[in-house]
Amino acid sequence: MTPSRARRGATRGPQPPVLQVTDRGRPRMARAFLRRVVRAALLHGGAPRMPVSLLLCGDGEISAIHARHLGDHGPTDVISFAIDGTAELVVSTETARRCARERARAIDAEVALYVVHGLLHLCGYDDRNARARARMRAAERAVLATLGIDVDDVDA
């Protein structure tokens, strides 16, 4: 390796995770914003290099995925799968838009919450009981705070 190459590599720091986005939702989400959200969540979760595939879609598409893979018919906010070391996330921007309106916050903040939630699940966080849910909610708020996003209690 040449000295100039060594210097370039040394100054760049850790490489960001690979992020593949398929955006079929409305409104469209800015890729740079999604990259920042994914990076912050994975860093907090201790998996900063985990590749992520993110599908943003409507309620109809997430309902079909929900039924096919989890046996639950109906829309949900986010579904996460770990497949061969890759985080596979499906987020309903239609649900995000509806919930953002109800909670009086920006849709991008709602989508960020869903992405963070799904990635934290794949990093070992859980929300099946009160103690685990409190830990998950604290982690969500911490990640979102690093992005300058303040969300109220999502369980309210």
What is the class in the CATH system? Answer: Alpha Beta
Morphology call: globular
Q: Helix tally? A: 6
Strands, count: 4
Q: Distance N terminus to C terminus?
A: 56 Å
Classified in CATH, the superfamily is Metalloproteases ("zincins"), catalytic domain
- Average pLDDT number: 90
The CATH topology is Collagenase (Catalytic Domain)
**Helix content percent band:** 40-55%
CATH architecture: 3-Layer(aba) Sandwich
Secondary structure blueprint with pairings:
Layout: H1 3-12, E1 19-23, H2 31-45, E2 52-57, H3 59-70, E3 78-83, E4 86-92, H4 93-103, H5 107-122, H6 130-146
Parallel strand pairs: 1-2, 2-4
Antiparallel strand pairs: 3-4
Helix pairs in contact: 2-5, 2-6, 4-5, 5-6
Salient structural properties:
alpha/beta, disordered N terminus, 4-stranded mixed β-sheet, Collagenase (Catalytic Domain)
Give structural notes.
The chain has six helices and four strands. The protein has 156 residues and is α/β, with parallel strands linked by helices. It has a single domain, classed as Collagenase (Catalytic Domain) (3-Layer(aba) Sandwich). A four-stranded mixed sheet has the order 1-2-4-3, sandwiched between helices. A hairpin with a 2-residue loop joins strand 3 and strand 4. The longest helix is centred in the C-terminal third of the chain and has 17 residues, at 130-146.
